[in-house]
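During data preparation, we tokenized the protein backbone, and the record follows.
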Amino acid sequence: MDALAGRGCRDGLEGANKGFGKSGLKAVAVLKADRAKPDYAQIVPPLVQARAQAVVWIGSGSAVADGVEALRRAGPKPTREKVQAALESMRRFDLGGLELNFSLDDHTGLDFADLSIVTAEGRFRR
């Protein structure tokens, strides 16, 4: 199992590592990359060398956008309760092509996963 970490994602990486540990797994490589313009020619070789079986890309972009919007909606004196209520009121919030949805009983926010296959040379196969 591998963790491929983007900038500012320490909390996400820490959480992933705790989850891996509970499952008896450990990352074989942790790399930093620019999420906006990843250089796969630099990223893929260390993963191949580590004989990675899977890659987990941890990024915080949408979480930051969620939080900023929730704080804006919570008003000038946000509290935990106000921020939670603001998040739970966010329906069909457009993050630039991705739709964010929260409710009282669903805190998932974003239902999105992307699968790409990259060759050892750093080229997309699919």
Q: What stands out?
A: The chain has a mean pLDDT of 76. The two ends are 21 Å apart (CA to CA). The longest helix spans residues 61-74.
